[in-house]
Amino acid sequence: MTDLQSPARGIPTIAARMDRLPITRHHRWLTVVIGLGLFFDIYEIFLAGVLGSVLSEEFHLSASLLPLLLSSAFLGMFIGALTLGRLADLLGRRRAFLLSLGIYSVFSLLAAFSAGPVMLLVTRFLAGIGIGAEPPVSDTYLGDLLPPENRGRYTAWAYTLSFCGVPAAGFLAHWLVPIAPFGFSGWRWMFLVGALGAVIVFGLRTALPESPRWLEAVGRTDEADAVVRRFEVQALAEGNVLPRPDARPVVAASETAALRNLFVRPYFRRTLMMSVFHVLQAWGYYGFGTLVPLVLVAKGFPVVQSLLFSAVTFIGYPVGSALSIPIVERIERKFLVMGSGIAMAVFGLAFGYASTTWVILLFGFLYTAISNLFSNSSHIYQAEIFPTQLRGTATSGTYSLSRLSSAAMPFVLVPLLHHAGAGIVFAVVAGAMIAMVLDIGLLGPRTTGRALESVNSIPAAQAASC
Q1: Which of 1, 308, 367, 379 is most buried (most C-beta within 10 Å)?
Q2: Does residue 415 have a pLDDT over 70?
């Protein structure tokens, strides 16, 4: 038996070989490419909030049309997460990722040439379909390829790169909105930047291998072996000594791709937990980013000044994401999600009731910083708790509910902001975050540092007693 073969029954050879690898140049490069792809997903999400007040003036939107415009991309993301996320299990992680980027790029380009609110609404909806599945597909892809000891940290690196898209959207809007380069309105350039950037990422597609775990799960063992050998050769070329594959006696849980397996033991509990989680977390995470410019205008700040303040607070997104890198492997993932969720509730209330500029900026920054510690840990977590053949479907399917919840959110929070004020809005958000913390605390398994097959398998002794 060679060191490339696993003597353990129940653990796929491909998985064991991937898990024993050190981080190589291939791992780092694919992390960068995925991070760049996610950059435009995050950029697009926060574009709605950044441009909401501007487009209200540009198209003279009524109080009923503004929430519809804000929610249109999220509605598209809901559809995209359900459909393209399923493709990640049927056609592969790589294809689903690249397809989502291609669709987004085309319709973001068309959005830049919108003649009126209806065309803008439709193109944003269709662009949303393109990027709807991108985060959960990326989480699944990185989870498949990264070794357990580094899975959290390198996923956090990818999201740290992606979250630079939030202040980028804020500062670009502050700079571009008041001007019209080459006679083209500044807000239209915002959509062009998103479209052209996605084309660049698509051009880097040759750097992305298919997930060997997925290839093995669908019977393409030779292709899976070829991908793993690329990583092994790279690891040896960098001077590493590869240990023998892990031989722990585990029995893999059912790996059939039938959707019904998400609703039976042991995965029904996890499917329920993540469904509730995503419905609630969207109000805390996307609620702030989408509504903060409108909240600042409601507090009496001019539109351009509110865009500057938004951009400053948005710096907290990449900063908070970077802060997660050294701790995401040191604290159990579920506890990190819970603790950061509680902090978001506290900082959100402080921001909602703040009235002076420095307090608004301070708690806005703290909120965005802690929310990305929350976001990174939850993205890693959701891709760890389902089996390989259903991982893309489960993460995307439950994640799609966050998009649907985000689409409904403006219809509740925007009228509440106008009638009751920012304090009440963030009290509602805080209530959603506390309920989310209870959901994870009661139903969530522990995952940090464990092999995916271990998280999604049962001990041999337990299997024999069943």
Answers
A1: 367
A2: yes
